[in-house]
Design goal:
This protein is an alpha/beta fold. The protein has helices spanning 21-24, 26-37, 51-54, 67-80, 86-92, 96-103, 108-115, 119-131, 149-163; strands at residues 13-17, 41-45, 58-60, 135-139, 172-174. It is built from nine helices and five strands, in the order βααβαβαααααβαβ. A five-stranded parallel β-sheet has the order 3-2-1-4-5.
Length: 209
């Protein structure tokens, strides 16, 4: 999955989830800072108060390994408060009813107890996300380094579909920007240097020791 990293500069809300972008993704961070100068709100979701979190408007310091619980709590509020883009969901998503049933189990109070953050913060984060356009999520690999990390990413990835964030070029989510600027490897190769040469063998010649 992935929105264009350049488009983050046009977002009005950016959730930086499990990523210390200052240390690991300066290209994205420069776009996030541009969005911030334009009035966007930046929220860091990370157990650790990283350099990135310190420079965001808000830091959601959840317990390690509880990212999926927070995502389900946000879904709970989005569905309860009528902030789901049903037209987008009906046209472009599958499994909404099953997801809604799962999210119904994660009221803000349960999320707060699981994640170690205030229930009011869960409510406010979900409402901000559901009411702000364009809204974008920058994921990274931090949340995957615990049991159930893959499913946590899957849960977070449901959020843009629920609110129709993919309607906006500056909305949606991005996990990896590694393919944004592909390298033309052919330009780095010199096959002419090895055309007339035999490759080196590691096998000893017969009869030698």
């Amino acid at each position: 999955m992935g929105m264009d990293v350049e488009r983050f500069a046009e977002s009005q809300l950016i959730l930086i989830w499990g990523s210390n972008a200052i240390a690991s993704n300066l290209h994205f961070w420069s776009r996030a800072q541009e969005a911030k100068r334009r009035g966007a709100k930046l929220v860091a979701i990370d157990p650790y108060r990283s350099a990135t979190a310190a420079k965001c408007h808000e830091h959601v310091a959840l317990m390690p390994g509880t990212d999926a619980a927070l995502a389900y709590g946000m879904m709970h509020v989005l569905i309860r408060d009528g902030l789901v883009d049903r037209d987008y969901v009906d046209r472009h998503a599958v499994g909404y009813e099953a997801l809604a049933a799962r999210a119904a189990e994660w009221a803000p109070a349960r999320v707060a107890a699981t994640c170690g953050i205030p229930a009011a913060q869960v409510e406010a984060l979900a409402r901000d996300y559901g009411r702000t356009r364009p809204a974008a999520i920058r994921l990274n690999y931090g949340m995957q380094r615990v049991a159930g990390g893959g499913n946590a990413v899957r849960a977070v990835a449901c959020l843009p579909a629920l609110v129709g964030a993919w309607r906006d070029p500056a909305g949606g989510a991005l996990l990896s920007s590694s393919g944004t600027y592909p390298v033309a490897t052919k330009a780095l190769e010199r096959p002419d240097l090895i055309q007339a040469r035999r490759g080196r063998s590691t096998c000893p010649r017969s009869g030698t020791h």
